[in-house]
Amino acid sequence: MKHRYRVVQFFLTAMGMLLMMSAPAMATGITVSGVVQDGSKQVVAKATVYLIQASDVEEMAKTKLYPKKNADNDEPMEDNLAANKDKYKKGLSDKQGNFKIAGVADGKYFIYVVPADSTYLPGGSKANTSVSSQELKGKKVEILLSGNISADATFVGTSSCLECHKAYATEKMTLHKLGIRVAGKDSKLQDSSRFVEFDNGLNILKAGATFYFTNYDKERGFDKYKISREMPKDPAAASLSATFAVDGKGNVTVKMQNLKDPSDPPRVYPVEMTYGGGLYKQRYLLRVGKSLYPFLQFNEHGNDAYGNRTRQQFRDYHADWFYDEEAKKLKNPPIAKSFDKECASCHYTGYTLTKLDSGEYVAGAVNDPNGEFDVDGDGIPNELNVGCESCHGAGSAHVKASAAKKAATIVSPNKLASERSSLICGQCHSRPQGFLNNDQPVNKDNKMMVPGTSRNDYLNNYTTREDAAPGDIWESHSKSHHQQYLDFIRSSKYRNGDQILSCSTCHDPHGSGSFKHQMRQEGVTPGNTYCQGCHTAQKDIVKHTEKAVGMAHGPETKITCTNCHQFKTAQTGAGFGKGLVTEDGKNYWENDITSHLFIVPRKDNKHVKGVDPDKAMPIPYTNSCGISCHDPKSLQ
Question: What is the pLDDT of residues 293-306, one digit of tens each?
Fold first, then answer.
């Protein structure tokens, strides 16, 4: 009996082992479940939901980012998905939009959705902040996808958008909406009341100012002349003068006269519109034939006492287009240099470009009854500034759609991964070159990209040079204006394993707050609270600065996060005047456009040591620290 029992026991044990070997392995880890919908709460079926490992994004962040076409490390979600698609856990949404992902191991993940077709855009509302598997356990994850713009959609104008979205009328008060303005007049889509000094420069011109353009220097860029408000002591140095006036109808004009040849007939041009004016500078758009041309620059913080010509109150802006130094004659500006061809695409909503039989270029924009000016001559004003559709896409299908289909027909940037949403701003804030061979990112058909386009598609189809030229960068930080995106994508805010920021994380595109740079968090100290909302360990500025620089800075110093982490490296207007003056009388200037790298250069920065201060990159050591409080010799 004992022997038979042992045989039976052995048989059962062997059978059990065989069954264990042949049976499927027990699932380990947790199950992540949820639903995929759009902003109208319509379910999205057949969408693939991926769990992208945060550790992979952290590894990507260790690589140097080269802004170039087909780079494999400049899109945190899409590049990692392309490289590791078979590695990541995934689930497919069913007819009710529900999905499940089983066997998810402990770790941190970004939840990224790829829709089945082009009705929706990839990414989703959970794509930019990583979550731990334990946070997902037992919860139903609700993911919202952005709609997409159909190929046949057309622009309808911001007035049409505001009929339903009245809460976003605050957009009228943003500098994006005030950039191009009929001289001295708001359109019904503009409200300049926040910027009481908007027309300081224009008002000087309207009072009858005369400018003398002297000392021509062909080696300089757009300011080949020095400017004087008085006839120079050496009249031979002066080439032309420009006198502004207001005619009987209230229109501003400029009369140019040849100072080298008085027999040359003067030329008079209408000053049709202003270009900027809310913060640092304003230029003036003259109508010449069918096109617009910029002329003269007013620097809001400029001072004629500054020895640096770029920082005086008025600065030459391409007077050389209106005067031929070889022939000593006045001339009309070159057709190929018009604002229409060289600049308008980043300003006009629904930009188009037409080349006339005369060779002139005329830029068009969407018709809007409340727009700024009728630039295309069809009797209806055009929207000449960044409007709703610049960021959300052409709205005709959205306007016609039923309530259930609304969300699927328009781009919602807050439901995209940062790499796509930030690019909406970045296309005009990185100084690329497009197919017009200038700083406008337009494709071969002279069209701007559709919001929601991937960075890779954008670089391949809308640029011939991906980003700023080397001369526009101080080796690292931006040197020229409208390059914030170029800095940002090289920062740790764009590639990390926790929270991938976008432009709209800190900036409110709709301008609902009162901060001039459209910062979020109304009623808080600009520069601190919106940083400390995430950087909780640095909430105590006293302790943080003592640890970081060896010297505590309390509230009485009015030191903010941005004084050190977002100092002004780039110049657009005059900057903020003289910075640190060295013992030999040389000056480190304070500029006016913020770096978006968020790193703090030290005082031994190579652009300061051994470099002419007038050409050195502004850094906190020479400016925020060295001007106001500290003797630089005492600093570490």
Answer: 999 999 999 999 88
